Amino acid sequence: MENATPMLRQYLEIKKQYPGTLLFFRLGDFYELFNEDAVTGSRELQITLTARQKDSKNPIPMCGVPHHAASGYISRLIKKGYRVAICEQAEPAGKGTKLVRREVVRVITPGTSIDPLLTEPAESVFLASVTQQGDAFAAAFLELSTGEFSGTQSSEPSAWNSICDVIASYGPREILCTAALAPQLRKGLGLSPRPDPALTANENLGGVENSTEFPVLTILDDDQFAANTTNEILRSQFGVVQLSVFGLKERKATVAAAGACLGYALQTQRTKARHVDSFQYFERSDFMVLDNLTLRNLEIIESRGESGKSSLFNVLDETVTGMGSRLLRSWLMRPLIRRTEVQTRLAAVSELSDSILRAEVRTHLKEISDLERLIGRLNLGSATARDLISLGRSMSHYPAINDLLKNSRSLLLQVLSENIHELPEIRALIEKAIANDPPLNFNDGGTIREGFDAGLDEQRQLSRASKQLIAAFEERERERSGISSLKVRFNNVFGYYIEVTKGNLAKVPDDYVRRQTIANAERFTTPQLKEWEERVLGAEDRIRAIETEIFAAICSKIREETRRLQSTARALATLDSLSSLAEVAARRGYVAPVLHDGDEIEVKAGRHPIVEAFMDGSFVPNDIYLNNSTDRLLIITGANMGGKSTILRQVGLIQVLAQIGSFVPADAARLPMIDRIWTRVGASDDLASGRSTFMVEMTETASILHNSTPRSLVLLDEIGRGTSTFDGLSIAWAVAEFLHDSPEHGAKSLFATHYHELTELAENLSGAQNYQLAAAENDGEVTFLHRLQRGKSSKSFGIAVAKLAGLPSAVVDRAKDVLSRLEKYELAVFADEKAPGLPAAAAAKAASQISLFALTNEKAIDELRATDVEQMSPEDTKELLRSIKSKII
Question: Fewer CB in a 10 Å sphere around the end CB: N or C, the chain?
């Protein structure tokens, strides 16, 4: 680049300040990318890669996108995990200016996206920050588009696992940490690196199933987590002397995480974020814990199918605003754990069960814009005139909503009404000042309503009069010259000009001054046209300046009410979420659960909310009962496809629904408050970490056994199936006993299994009960009844399922034959006097143990036994050998 032009040298100086970031460099009407950025941009955006100085020894790769369409291109890059710096001209290009000053006005990253094109209405975009201070780990979470800001820390022995669980529940798009913590963070979150050579300063991480978006791990310097720096950032942002008001007095690790998180956000936005005006400290114990594994296994946010749209969230989301949808999503990821708070929500949902009240409330909510993000854009300086129109129209519905809620019986609905601030002066200002249909591009003019400002109206009149003079000038020049096709046109380069086709050049008056020659015409000007042009353009410049000043003043006035606007937005989002729960309950026949401080889970005719919503036909309901004494371990056996996994998930989902304040799919439900739901369902491996399916299963099971409490709910499906029969059965047996016997870790547990030997546990353990999913068999055909009943199943009907799946009939028949012989010569489970809990009857069968190979060749053995060798001829002998050979595997 030794021969670089001044513009390219300017580019390189700016680029140095933003390593690992794609620099969108404004040149006229385009954003250009150069060098490695251009190669990456061309590849990812599928746009043409060209070059500057093509004829030199070292041509400079470049590509570009139109500035008016840049948001769409940037959105695609951000969703792929890239960071983008926007570099604009910081001064107008005037006469004699060889190189205009440019500067970066904003850096867009996956965790700091605020543009509507970069955010989904129903999804929060969290920026997370993680740090370690001594023996304490902390995490902070900032949703920049709405101003939500919170954090937590832990110093317990399992502190790191706790913090990773919290991070998983927020699902951040971008995570900030130091280089030293990065490997531990990657391992703790179970994420696999997705390196990209274009992102030298970032580390892309993958691990989200069925998603093209990956959280990005961004490395910050250690000093960005320093106590002095982070304290000052937070105190300055909140305008306080001490941070104790936010519960941060003795929580230095949280201060470090929160300060680094906010500092990074402010640095990327290049502006104040006044809407981030508070911080909420929370403990993990403030919510039911649902780790990432449980969220996936129960399909709470995303389903495991290809579409990802058959989840509990999809069933419940009947919200009519983006902010309501995001709030409902957060409720599902962090259910409440205090009974009084849950009952407050349930009371509000119950009152909104009134179909007339609910319909009227939802009718008005449908007209409410996404106020949370609108307020965020307003405070970050990116709000448009159309945003203000949306705000004004939303505000016109506040009085009607308050009127509907004014006589509410529910305490929560009363509180919501008190927090919906009507702000009539703001609404009146918007209606008076902003045009009904303002232009998309502010510079096009017409944003401020006629009659609002006398000076603006005067300039507009002058501009219109000058344009009328130019129109009259065009008509006179046609008559004077005799050129009927003569036109007066305008462009940004030449201003106003007269265009004459080449066939009429002989008729051009002598006082015309040539400006430009084009393919089929010549362009001219006159002194009078130049004078009127200056009047028009001068007036339009003044109009833009006045409109800009007025719009800025209006935005400033509205920003003064940020707190009350945010309070209103949160109240309306809550009302929308509660109305959605009431709507779903009414449509699907859900009932209000009875919550208590005991340990009993009692559900009458419970249904799986997701399966019921998306299946064809009717769902078979089932009862369930658990407690911490007589029914703490339910061993569930039954046919493949009989519904064991459905029952497990159903119980977990009903508990989650109750603890977010929702009605539940059942005829009746009595439920305790659960601190955590643990799940071990399905098979998966972790090849990147060198862990087999069985190793993953055992690791997850170990975590449950070490960390579950008597207030937990444990859902285990097919423990021990990933290894040999004896190993697996032994492990499953021991795990079940531990869950039953451990006073410290023992939890209410549902244990689905195909190891029918485990049903003997119910005969020896006082708190174990046997249940089975019923199935009926008739002439080899199996009917799955999907009915849970007491007792134990002796068959799994796996061959029947294999037949349904379409296995060749020869395979199915052979499997039946092998099964009958295995059942005849049942594999022994060796009894041990030191382990009296194992089936004693198995000892008697040890002597008859036979290998599977021997069983599959028994037909040949039977034929040999039945043969009278003394009476056989040589030919008979050969035929017998051929027959036996054909039967040997």
Answer: C
